[in-house]
Design brief:
Layout (H helix, E strand, L loop, with lengths): L1 E9 L2 E7 L4 E6 L5 H11 L15 E9 L3 H9 L8 E9 L4 E5 L2 E3 L1 H8 L3 E4 L10 H12 L2 H33 L1 H13 L6 H13 L1 H16 L7 H14 L5 H30 L4 H20 L5 H67 L6 E12 L2 E10 L6 E2 H4 L2 H18 L4 E5 L7 H14 L5 E4 L3 H4 L4 E9 L5 E8 L1 H13 L5 H12 L1
Parallel strand pairs: 3-13, 3-14, 8-12, 12-13
Antiparallel strand pairs: 1-2, 1-4, 4-5, 5-6, 6-7, 9-10, 10-11, 14-15
Helix pairs in contact: 4-12, 5-12, 6-12, 7-11, 8-10, 9-10, 12-14, 14-15, 17-18
Length: 553
């Protein structure tokens, strides 16, 4: 229930602090006094769209804050899910609008996103304004009423979850099938390219090796002559002895005098090292000469292989053999990928069947529950309508099959007739006053069966008067025994039924600026307010007496 409301700088409300009791709370006031402002402030608190125009002139921000007492498990779950600290069943909601047009929301002093504010406040307060009676003509609302009456919450959650999963699986399947289609259309091409690159026998660094070999083969004769001449220079001199033999003799002679001249020993070591290096060079020259292939056939083979590799590099836009091998692997992966996709699609198709089966089961159970509850809901609504002096009315809850969705496979429509003839769709036959009465009947039934939050009626009694208004007052009063109900009304028959009565009034300051306020009235002051509702601005003695009778009854 709503325990207290605190408003600062909201349009014509400079400052308001008010506490509320349990039961039926009546709010009345002169036309234009600001009753709609109270409703607007609560709607703002509950997450309605707003802008800086709601801030009182001269103020930098406005604040609306309310404290609720709630033992609802749904509220507790939402608080826990959003990491909001509980406060012993109390829920403090605050929303602030700054002059920049930016709003901030808090629950138990914890900053929250607007969506969180809306979901939690929706479990605490239900604001029913005049235009909401038009919801009665909406099939989705009618379905939600029946589900609420049938207590289908768990089934509905299961159905919505299964439908969401089914859509996700089907979406993934559609994407994979499209991808598989593309792979299949390119399969022959990819296979051909993979085969071409695989048959090429690619090897990293091969082209560089071939280029070096091609240079050698193309200049083999010149190279062989140079190698032979170099080896010959090392192997002989003018005396006919090899360089190595001459150096060896020099080393021996220097070693013989090393004992007399130590420096000669060092020179002998250096000459020996040079001799060994010259012998190695000679050996390598002979090896290179023996390995050198002067075969024209080998040169042709090397140049053909180079031409093949250059052609592949150009064809696939690559610069190295490694890039060609990567392209080959990509073509191979695309071929293997189609097989993996087929397996994934097959698995998802099986999952789709299982999820579809779950969803169909939820749909069937929902339909069964709805069809079982529909006659009882219709009977309760009909009893309430006849209590509200629609004695010849008929009311039915009709269920037809429809294309499935998150809420199952049922189309629910309320059928109504006020004169006893065959009932037709509510939207086509009900007047504004009848819609108000039907909505009140629905709210009354739901208050008894669905554990609704604090309910605020904004002139739901519009379009009715006399004994019907009195009976609407009785019904609203009865609802107040099970829950906290606020009734913003202009009818004395309704106002007299309340457990508590508040009046909205507007006063003008010395500067001419208007300010709205809300205060609780009791005793003679309440009698005079009910009398005003009976007779208008001029309160007569008869109106006062009639007001006392209404309040006593």
């Amino acid at each position: 229930m709503l325990l207290s409301l605190h408003i600062r700088n909201y349009i014509l409300i400079d400052s308001l602090d008010v506490d509320f009791p349990e039961g039926l709370v009546i709010i009345t006031g002169q036309t234009g006094a600001g009753k709609s402002l109270m409703l607007g402030a609560l709607s703002f608190l509950a997450g309605a769209r707003a802008d800086a125009s709601m801030i009182s002139p001269g103020a930098s921000s406005c604040t609306v804050e309310a404290e609720f007492d709630s033992a609802s498990p749904a509220v507790a779950e939402l608080l826990e899910a959003n990491d909001i600290e509980p406060d012993g069943g109390r829920v403090l909601i605050r929303r602030v609008m700054s002059s920049s047009g930016r709003s901030r929301s808090f629950i138990n002093d914890c900053p929250v996103q607007l969506g969180v504010l809306q979901s939690i406040s929706g479990q605490l307060v239900d604001v029913h304004s005049q235009h909401k009676s038009l919801l009665l003509t909406d099939g989705g609302f009618q379905l939600s009423v029946l589900d609420s009456y049938a207590r289908d919450g768990e089934l509905l959650a299961g159905c919505r979850g299964a439908w969401k999963e089914l859509l996700a699986v089907r979406s993934e399947l559609a994407g994979l099938r499209e991808e598989l289609g593309k792979l299949r259309s390119e399969k022959d091409y990819n296979a051909d390219q993979f085969a071409r690159l695989s048959e090429a026998g690619l090897r990293s660094g091969e082209l560089e090796e071939l280029e070096e070999e091609q240079k050698s083969l193309a200049n083999a004769e010149q190279i062989k002559e140079a190698l032979a001449a170099s080896a010959s220079s090392i192997n002989s001199d003018e005396t006919g002895e090899g360089v190595s033999v001459l150096l060896k003799g020099a080393v021996r002679r220097l070693e013989q005098i090393a004992s007399y001249m130590p420096a000669a020993g060092g020179l002998a070591s250096r000459l020996e090292s040079a001799r060994i290096e010259i012998d190695d060079v000679r050996s390598e020259l002979e090896t290179l000469d023996s390995r050198l292939d002067m075969s024209p056939e080998r040169l042709e083979a090397v140049e053909d292989r180079m031409s093949q590799l250059y052609s592949l590099l150009r064809r696939y836009g690559c610069s190295t053999e490694d890039e060609l091998m990567a392209a080959r692997d990509a073509f191979g992966a695309s071929i293997a990928g189609s097989e993996a996709l087929e397996e994934r699609i097959s698995a998802l198709e099986e999952k789709e069947k299982a999820v579809l089966k779950d969803w169909e089961r939820f749909c069937a159970e929902l339909s069964e529950s709805r069809r079982a509850a529909a006659p009882a809901l219709a009977d309760e609504i009909l009893k309430s309508l006849r209590f509200l002096e629609l004695e010849n009315s008929r009311f039915e809850v009709n269920i037809d099959p429809k294309a499935g969705g998150a809420d199952g496979c049922d189309r629910v429509s309320f059928l109504f007739s006020s004169g006893g003839d065959a009932p037709r769709e509510l939207a086509k036959v009900a007047s504004g006053g009848e819609l108000s009465r039907i909505m009140l009947c629905l709210k009354a039934v739901m208050a008894r069966t669905a554990g609704m939050p604090t309910l605020i009626f904004d002139e739901i009694d519009t379009g009715v008067s006399g004994s019907v208004a009195d009976r609407m007052g009785q019904m609203i009063c009865s609802m107040g025994k099970d829950m906290q109900v606020f009734a913003i009304t202009h009818l004395p028959q309704v106002a007299a039924k309340g457990d508590a009565h508040y009046v909205v009034s507007k006063v003008r300051a010395a500067d001419g600026r208007a300010n709205s306020s809300l205060r609780r009235i009791e005793g003679d002051e309440r009698v005079r307010e009910v009398a005003r509702l009976l007779s208008g601005s001029e309160i007569t003695g008869a109106a006062l007496e009639n007001a006392r009778v209404l309040l006593a009854g």
